[in-house]
Amino acid sequence: AMIIRMSISRVREFAADDGGAEISRKPLGLASALEKISAAARRPLLHMNSAHAHMFIISPISGRGLSSLMSSHPPMEERVRRLRAMAAGTA
What we know:
- By secondary structure, the chain is mainly α.
- It contains three helices and no strands.
- Helix 2 (about 25-40) packs antiparallel against helix 3.
């Protein structure tokens, strides 16, 4: 059930990115903002509780492979790639 919940959360993040790009008509601006947020988030958080990860704009807990199944956020690189593709008209 948790894997399904996290998967739905990741799909919603992509939908929010798409909606924001459509409303603002600035997918490159959103991609740039996500990159800036990602850079700031690389700083370690003290006392991070994984139960709060879904409340962040990007996942404060990094993971690849099987651990990414439990992530509430899609990879930042994929979100930026999709926004750039949208701006180029290839999405």
